[in-house]
Amino acid sequence: MTASLFYLFAVGLLGASLFVVLNPNPMYSVVALVFGFANLAAIYFLLEAYFIGALQVLVYAGAIMVLFLFVVMLLNVQSDADHPSLPRVFRIGSWWFGALALVFIGLFLLLVGRSALALLAPSEVPPTQIGSVSQVGEALFTRYLLPFELASLLLTVALIGTVFLAKKKI
Amino acid sequence: MSDTLYLITLFPLVGFLVNGLLGRWISERQSGLIASLAVLGSLLVSAQLLLGLLARPAEDRLFVQLLFAWIPVGDLNIDVMYRFDPLTAVMTLVITGVGLLIHIYSLGYMRGDPGIRRYYAFLNLFTFMMLNLVLADNLVLLFMGWEGVGLCSYLLIGFWFADEAKARAGLKAFIVNRIGDAGFIIAMVLLFHQFGTLSMSEMAGKAEGALVGPNFFTIVTLLLLVGAIGKSAQIPLFVWLPDAMAGPTPVSALIHAATMVTAGVYLIVRNSLLFSLAPTTMATVAAIGVLTAFLAATIAMTQTDIKKVLAYSTISQLGYMFMAVGVGAFSAGIFHLMTHAFFKALLFLGAGSVIHGLDGEQELGKMGGLKHRMPGTHWTMLIGVLAISGIPGLSGFFSKDEILWGAFIWHDGVNWIWLLGIMTAGLTAFYMFRLYFLVFHGPARWPGDTQPHESPSVMTIPLTLLAYLAILGGYVGIPEALGGINRFHHFLAPVVISYHTAIAAAPNTRPLELLLMAVSTVVSLGGVYYAYRIYRVQPALAEQLARRLRPLYGLSRNRYYVDEFYQAVVVRPFQKLSGLCWNWFDVRAIDGLVNASARSIARLSGVVRQLQSGLIQHYASLILLGVIFIMLYITMG
Amino acid sequence: MVVPLHHIIAISGLLFTIGVVGVLFRRSAIIVFMSVEIMLNAVNLAFVAFSRYHGSVDGQVFVFFIMTLAAAEVAVGLAIIIALYRNLRTADLSEIHELKH
Question: How far does C45 lie from chain A, in Å, by closest CA?
Fold first, then answer.
């Protein structure tokens, strides 16, 4: 049951991502990505990473994608109306650029697969519950306290940087 | 006492810096005054030091001052150390004394020249360098002065550099001197290799009885001689000096007659110990000297440019000095150096006065009859002419006869060096009186609109003083044969090696010496007489003689074609070779190589440049490429 | 959970590749940016999977930090895109070659 659910969500995730990449219209892409991230959150839940799954919905599918949506609408970026998306997209360099990139991507995929197989995957799942909010929280506030605080600092810096960049005059 | 040595060079250096750096803010007159005062300061310090020397016993006459360590590198220790001994005293006084008079003379001669501050700056720099040359205890410091005076010579010959011929003359002097300097440098390296020091006082202690190859001293001294030949314009490197007359006349008087060109003689005398250990070199020096003296005198007989006559006369007299040191009469060489400085500076300044009075005319053919127009110049020049001709009673007589006496006893009797020397004496008298008659006597040949005038007193007073020196300068060295005690010789004796002390002291030589004096006087008077006959009594005779002796006359007139010979044998082939190197090797090989590498780089860059498209996705794909390589390394490796 | 680990890793790799393709081939800066987010999430997925299968919470803590970073990055990145758009009147990466100069 969980296994089939996992594959279902995985297909949803990959499909949505492909749509994002191949679709010419940024509006649709954003919506598709929200959908994909929702699928990913579901996979997290299946993996019993409840805290991360919740964060995925809140931060990614919620906050970040809303920001994207907002910018797309703000800029009113029409998906290059006169450019049909995929065939032209390959022409960013030239034909040989595309061919070369495809070769690389194929090679890349192959290597990722090999690497994944090379990792001796333990097939038995440990019985322990590790994904609960309390357990992640405990790790965050004990062993990872300093990185946690630094992360808050990073967010502050990003906030200031964003305000500065987005001001009318740079 | 010895701690004031540095003042001698400090004054001209300050004068140079003031004139050179602050020239813009001082007037023309102030510039000249500052320069003259600087030399006067050096003169006074030198004179005081000379008195200090004389107050000491003969063997203790030496002041030394160590200023600072200049180049301490490993075994090589070069100190800036000044050394003031009798030889230096003579040189210093000549340089500052004659130099001062010429500085003052220049006030009148150079008046109104726009470059006068530059002129005085160079003149003071020259004095500084020349004093360093004679004060140096170390060959390297001496060489600095040596090169420094060469530089100033170049700068002053080409002083009016807007005239290309003059600029070229400066260049010629500089380049010809370089040939000699190469010999000097090699000699220094050899000496350092042998003795581990370049200080001349230390070297002198090690030279005698040193365990060296039999030819070591011959080679070293020959190389030093090459340097001396270049500087003192001897055969075969004399060609630069006549061209050097392109400079202002006071410069010719100071640098190209009285001081710088005698540096070669000074170098030999300063290293007389080394030279006396190499008899072959000594013979070479004597031969070169006497040949130069004779040939230059024959050239001087036919020149028509007043300064060219004096230039060849200078070469001839320098040959005399070389002859003196070559036969071992070192003190006689220095004696002649001093007297020559007096009368040749006088002659040059007199010639300058004549040129000044004729508004720049230098051709003897356009002078004549100036005796009454320029009385002061006339009388002083006459004294100079008499002095150089060796007429008894004037300074040139004493020094010249001492040299001839040295040459005579060199091989215990009549020898070719002495014979050529005495012939040169006659020729000297002849061409100097030729000059005198052509300038001051006979019909006036200058163009009608020129009004010859006597020079201002700022020019004639130095002339007068030099005339006194030209008369009296010889009386410091009256030979024993004439009842004197030859003070000059004894003063220099501690510093120079003398071959002939024993012979000269022998009592029975006195009648012989007197006889030789009489002979040379007669020869000189003969020269004067023929000059009088040809150029004063029968002016047409000169033309006839020239026609009858056409080949000889042409040879002399054209300076034995030495310049043409060098042009054909050295300069042209060198230019051709250079042209070949340039057209073929440089343009094709070197430029080709450079261009080829540049082009290939450009082509390669053209390929690589396309990576720099500015498109971020191209960069990202290169990152991906890198990631793939890393993964390949991890999984395959 | 009966799904083998390497299946999850394979899905993560595919997701990452899709992101790479988007970054390399799309011309719209916003889509490229979204592709970057896809790549980040592919990594997150691998982290969570390993964390689960190795019974260690560290992987999930890493994901937490990556999300924090992603939030900051998106904020700054989108601001940059806005600034670019304002200055160059385009968000088409093939027309932006400022890096060349």
Answer: 8
